[in-house]
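Appendix B, example 12.
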Amino acid sequence: MNANSPNKVAQNIRRTGFLIVILYLLIVLTMKVLEVNNFFGYSLSSFSSDIFAPPSFNHLCGTDRLGRDVCFRTLQGSSIAIEVVLLAIFFSLILGLPLGLLSGYLGGIFDKCLSLLMDTIFSIPVILLSVVVAFVLGKGIINASIALCIVYSPQYFRLIRNQTILVKSEIYVEAARVSGADVKTIIFKYILPNVITPLPILITLNAADAVLVLGSLGFLGLGVPADVPEWGSDLNLALAALPTGIWWTALFPGLAMFFLVLGLSFIGEEIDNIFEK
């Protein structure tokens, strides 16, 4: 057997993550286009007498306890999951990146106070913190994104701060400082490009984790509003029907969440492998 075979297999598995995530993005784009053009009409959210119908040609993934098509709700749940995760990561970067740069570069009492605050937030379990924040803010896509942002911002802050402390002592930064460059130029021209290289790995891993946290919030009824299709809330509704043999209402949202997390995790592994080379 070729000694490189295990490495090639691992590489192919990791690159499968890109295909999975691209598929989800295509699903999200397709669903958004169809919704904007009212392709499904009112029937997508209406109630039907065909309650708990098993998978068939009429309903490929069956229907739930309200007669809603599980397939359509699962596909729409992909849109909500991707949207919330992207917003959460974006907000986390907007908050954690500049604060980490300033804290690492300026140091002093500013760095100590900010580091203490971020370390305190970071020490709180992710689920507990997200549940508390989501409960305070209430339901909603933006509120769920903010809850996840507060959870993940300390990670970006700590990463960028530590990298900045290392980079600011480099010779080229000292040379720029001696030559009269202002703080803004030093940070954004000389420090920022050299501290963001580890970000793609953290982003993909946080995105995978955020999908699970969002599902947990939805399962607890703290994520998005009840009328918005979301995997966690659908799993909560499906839980009561499982003992009666109604398996499809839980299977398909669960699989959708599993494969999205799997794809994002594979991408993170591939990016980590690229940076290690």
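The longest helix spans residues 70-106. The radius of gyration is 22 Å.
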